[in-house]
Amino acid sequence: MAHVVVIYNNVPDRSLLAQDLKSELGLLQVADGVAAALRARHRVTVLPFAGDVILLGEQLRALKPDAVFNLFEGVFGFSQSEVFVPITLDLLGIPYTGSSAKTLETCLKKSLTKKILLRRSIPTPPFQVFAVGAPIEPQLPFPIFVKPDCEDASLGISNDSVVYTPEQLENQVRAIWQKFSQPALCETFIDGREFNVAILGDPDYEQTIAHPFAPKVLPISEICFDTMPAGYQHIVSYNAKWEDSSIEYRETKPVCPAPIDLKLELELKQLALRTFHAMGCRDYARIDFRYSHDGKLYVIDVNPNPDISPDAGFARSAHAGGYSYEQLIQTIADFALNRKTHPNTD
């Protein structure tokens, strides 16, 4: 019986969290759910991590895990710290689930991700980055979508993120600078449908015919905005993801499998797999698309190690693909355990 350690964010007291860090709540419940799914086949230890990599190394040396199920997403809203766990595990030679530190760091910086995609001829909306304090001189047509360059979980995205005038653009860029102390990423707003494409698998087995670990696309999900009231943007804002009392949350409705024709389905799958490989994703990832009214697909976000709580989009797609939650978690753990058994495939 293998020993799997589940590492997750050690979240501070709820009363100390800022309003926009609600995405960190519930991580203990997710970790407990993952641990419960693994215990049918493995010995499991749940280990909270608050950012002390020296302590983490000591704990892991004492625990001697066969693999780590990495749920860590960064401490106290500092998204860039997400790499602490995979870097530590690589140094200790412990296999782990999900993407490498390099991929996590690259995908977190959205402008860098977009440059890589464009070099691979993968469509993504035209963009412009405004460094903190730089002149705000738009070179894109309006409307423009404004968001932080280095955040995830829809942090910094609100109903005000789609701007229509130079004045609105300046206000929103300055708000990003002030709140997040980082560049603002501005991109052409693609009005249309939104799709989430979940991929499960280890790319080391891509060329192995019919290998069960080879990456595969799960049933595609559409985010439906049809019932969103007038005045609300058709985007997945922070409220839409995390504020269950908000109109955005109630009227942002996932539909899986998405009601699409075979041509669009095949195009989404092909572009998602190309993106998965271009960004070096591993084990599980979610690629987000917008589909314009003139029939063009654009990658708008790449999510390595996406949320895998039972009610999140990845688990929803897996369920539609015939996986129980326990089977999904076991499958992801198997990828890491296999890398311990066959280290040459890593």
Structure description:
There is one protein chain. Mean pLDDT is 92; it is low at 13-17. Helix 1 crosses helix 11 (325-341) and helix 2 (53-63) crosses helix 3. The protein is 34% helix and 21% strand. It has 346 residues and is of the alpha+beta class. Among the domains are: 3-96, 3-Layer(aba) Sandwich (Rossmann fold); 191-220 and 256-345, D-amino Acid Aminotransferase, Chain A, domain 1 (2-Layer Sandwich). It has 11 helices and 13 strands. Helix 1 (27-38) links the parallel strand 1 (3-9) and strand 2 (43-49). Strands 8, 9, 10, 11, 12 and 13 form a 6-stranded antiparallel β-sheet that branches. It has a 4-stranded antiparallel β-sheet with strand order 4-7-5-6, sandwiched between helices.
Oligomeric state of the chains present here: single chain
N-to-C terminal Cα separation, in Å? Answer: 22 Å
- C-alpha Rg (nearest Å): 20 Å
Return residue spans where pLDDT drops below 50 for at least 5 consecutive residues: 13-17
Q: In which range does the helix fraction lie?
A: 25-40%
* Average of per-residue pLDDT values: 92
Order of helices and strands: EHEHEHHHEEEHEEEEHHEHEEHH
CATH-assigned fold name of one domain: D-amino Acid Aminotransferase, Chain A, domain 1
Architecture of one domain in CATH? 2-Layer Sandwich
General shape = globular
Q: Major sheet: size, sense and barrel closure?
A: 6 strands, antiparallel
- CATH superfamily assignment of one domain? ATP-grasp fold, B domain
- Individual helix count: 11
Which class of secondary structure composition applies to the elements? alpha+beta
CATH class call of one domain: Alpha Beta
Strand content: 15-25%
How many strand units?
A: 13
